[in-house]
Amino acid sequence: MNSYGRAAAALALALATACTAAPEPSAVRPPASTGSGAGAAGEDVRFYVDDEGAAAREARRLREEGKTQEAELIGRIAERPNAVWIGDADPSSRVAAVTEKAAKAGQVPVLVAYHIPDRDCGQFSAGGAANPGEYRSWIRRFAEGVADRPAWVILEPDALAHILDNCTKGGKADERLDLLRDAVETLKKQPRTRVYLDAGNAGWIRDPGAWVDPMRRAGVATADGFAFNVSNFFTVEESVAVAGRLSDALGGAPYVIDTSRNGNGSPQGAQGDDAWCNPAGRALGTAPTTRTGRERVDAFLWVKRPGESDGECHRGEPAPGTWFHDYALELARNAK
Q: Which of 179, 177, 234 has its CA nearest to residue 211?
């Protein structure tokens, strides 16, 4: 998926620019974490570990071949909770299977709903529903798959950011905001579903105040908060510095941070695809937990599945979501 990066210069601007003339805070759900480090609603959530994911399969293969050192490295990914990305034409059966398996194990799955029309604006992760009507039906099937089982849902990575960078034009921005609001409202009808609306990353947000109205229109007040740094590499400190200001502008909205590959932060000085698409020298970050020790940060999550490619990156690398063995090993080796 495309998270552009816009790394050093944009981050510096985001940190230096005050959040000017932000609209009055909307009524959002009370912050789920209050600085105690206990995460969402004070819970210590056991997130779902996918034993059938690409990393788990790779670790088993390596053990069978006697490559114990590589298997141990890949195990650092496979044995951690990773989000499950859902973009199937009909998501219901897969969502049901994951949530049922997680519930039996006493775990909570993190699901990524990723099927918005004109997804990724035609770039590496192009696809999604053919039209608004199809998407509304799709998100209802997604919700049916969750049913009354617990799940955390990250809603449509990049969808809001692409509105703000003018990728969606010709009236499609309003259409997209309506679809996101409908998705939030539909998912929140399920009694044990938490929803976090994706809100980009510290390199994408130049002025948090510019995000307030679109996020309100997209239903952030109905959601449980927003997601930050999905599939990107900014450190927790960098993310909190920007996401915290966005939270303030939204009246104290809680948020989650993707820490899957931010152990070494973002590549310094990288431009274009090199800033976000399988950049070298990155590392696994903090393991998923709701004990964040950060005010309003409900959880650190591994939303991007480490070891799965960001895209071809114009260098002949694997397609988005495809296992990238050498990159996975590098992420694990570099982890602290």
A: 177
**Out of 120, 198, 207, 258, which one is annotated catalytic?**
120
Catalytic-role residue among 118, 258, 298, 310 = 310
Is residue 72, in this structure, part of any structural domain at all?
yes
Q: What is the DSSP letter of 220?
A: T
Residue pLDDT, tens place only, 214-265: 999 999 999 999 999 999 999 999 999 999 999 999 999 999 999 999 999 9
158 a catalytic residue: yes
Is residue 178 flagged as an active site residue? no
Residue 228: strand, helix, or coil: strand
Domain count, the chain: 1
CB 5 within 8 A of CB 276: yes
CA atoms within 13 A on the CB side of 304: 35
pTM for this model (two decimals): 0.88
Distance (Å, rounded) from C-alpha 220 to C-alpha 328? 34
Q: Which residues of the chain have pLDDT under 70?
A: 1-42, 119-127, 165-171
Note whether residue 22 is domain-resident: no
Flag whether 23 is in a domain.
no
Full domain range(s) for residue 141: 7-17+28-334
Distance (Å, whole) CA 332 – CA 75 = 9
Q: Which amino acid is at 226?
A: F
State CA 238 to chain mean position distance: 16
245 is a domain residue: yes
Catalytic site residue from 50, 158, 224, 298:
158
